[in-house]
Amino acid sequence: MNNEALTKRNKFIKNVKKCVAFGDEPEIKIIDCKGNEYEMIVYSDFVDFYDEKDNYKKLEKIEDVFEYIKNDIEQYIGEFGQDLTIDRDDHYKLGSCYPKYAYIFFFILAFLMVFDATMPLYLFTDDSLTFDIIFSTVTGICAIVCVICGFFNMQTYVITKEIAIYRFGKEIESINLNDCVFEIMELPTFFSHSFAVFKEKWICLYKRDESYKRFKVGCANKKNSNRIQILYSDDVLNILKNSKAKQIDDFKI
User: Fold this and answer.
1) Is the pTM of this model over 0.85?
2) Which of 22, 153, 197, 240 is exposed most, by the fewest CB atoms within 10 A?
């Protein structure tokens, strides 16, 4: 193994251990030079490892995975597509802003819409061709909209010296931890304005010295809004308490 490969491996191990130390259970993919993929979930006391043939092994520590990878390694990839061989000395935590159902629902709905778009082929055979085309076009457009909404809700956050949220790999908002206030709120989440209401616990952050426009519903992050909400996590709360962020239980809007 050359020096560059050894350096990348050591950085990978360091970054994974740092994630675990902050309470994460990172899902990781390793790709070797022949295109073989190895997947693992790293816990504080063991590793779930799946080799290139999807055979499962329970390992004691992250270093043990390299006993089962014989080829040179090309990529170390984290759950959110990040390169795990890059130094992350200021990294605290990363994760998903919203609950999984906030985007899985739209993907399921898109699948159903695609299925509906094919219905004229076997159900509406007696209808005019114009009707069939209009029906399939409208349902197809609805399916595309649902896919976009699903990806729109797949927001992620990264906490370093600031907390930043990303959509489609681009930052949409960030707040310095030394320049923010936060509160813990239980909010109606996902379709709260229509037919279904779910209650979720959120961490809501606001830039200090800005006019506080409190969140009233979940899944409501917007670009350049001077506020961020992420699904509640004890680990994130501890990070905020250890920073200069100020928790407030009540304040005027």
Assistant:
1) no
2) 197
